[in-house]
């Protein structure tokens, strides 16, 4: 199944399983405390809009969410009326240089190829204003298009190790300012603890 089909199927079940990650909420609280009201936020792979878009919109930021799943976009539009949501693949998205203060990609780059992830990181760096921040949450494992069972679906995943991610970020001019490797057990039957990688980067 492609990403749109997977997340159309999961809908609010995805939110119930994943939205209460303490480390994720901690990073969002840091953004809410450090970014001025009115900051322009791009939420790549926004899902249901909870918690990323909702938290940052409540903090007074102007949030735009993008997702390939029409079901997710509809749910997000209902749940977070203070933000704007569009059904579009980030690989097809265009934005002027320096047009965003904060860009978030919370587990949304995993269903690309490694080459597409690198290309997207370059685009993100261009879209950020100087001094702007990029928040990446992902799984730090060096794999290319591996098919895995996940929440009753089959998904195809690509990613990099932490060191390789940091190298690719540095190549596009993004400097890591906060990093963590939180472990979280999602709320669905048979779920096991999973380690993720959270990197907050700044464009100098």
UniProtKB/TrEMBL annotation:
GO MF assignments: methyltransferase activity
InterPro entries: SAM-dependent_MTases_sf (IPR029063)
Alphabetized SUPFAM superfamilies for the sequence: S-adenosyl-L-methionine-dependent methyltransferases
Alphabetically ordered keywords of this record: Methyltransferase, Transferase
Record's keyword annotation contains Methyltransferase: yes
GO terms classed as biological process: methylation
Pfam families: Methyltransf_23 (PF13489)
Superkingdom per UniProt: Bacteria
Entry protein name: Methyltransferase domain-containing protein
């Amino acid at each position: 199944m492609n990403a749109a089909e997977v997340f159309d199927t999961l809908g609010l079940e995805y939110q119930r399983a994943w939205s209460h990650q303490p480390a994720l909420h901690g990073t969002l609280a840091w953004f809410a405390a450090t970014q001025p009201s009115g900051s322009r936020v791009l939420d790549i792979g926004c899902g249901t809009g909870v918690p990323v878009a909702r938290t940052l919109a409540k903090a007074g930021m102007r949030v735009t969410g993008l997702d390939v799943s029409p079901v997710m976009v509809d749910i997000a539009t209902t749940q977070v009326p203070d933000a704007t949501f569009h059904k579009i693949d980030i690989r097809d998205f265009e934005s002027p240089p320096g047009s965003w203060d904060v860009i978030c990609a919370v587990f949304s780059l995993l269903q690309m190829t490694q080459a597409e992830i690198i290309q997207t990181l370059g685009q993100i760096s261009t879209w950020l204003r100087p001094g702007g921040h990029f928040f990446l949450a992902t799984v730090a494992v060096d794999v290319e298009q591996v098919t895995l069972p996940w929440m009753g679906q089959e998904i195809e995943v690509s990613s990099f190790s932490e060191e390789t991610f940091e190298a690719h970020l540095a190549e596009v001019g993004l400097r890591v300012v906060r990093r963590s490797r939180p472990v979280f057990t999602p709320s669905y039957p048979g779920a096991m603890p999973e380690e993720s990688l959270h990197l907050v980067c700044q464009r100098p």
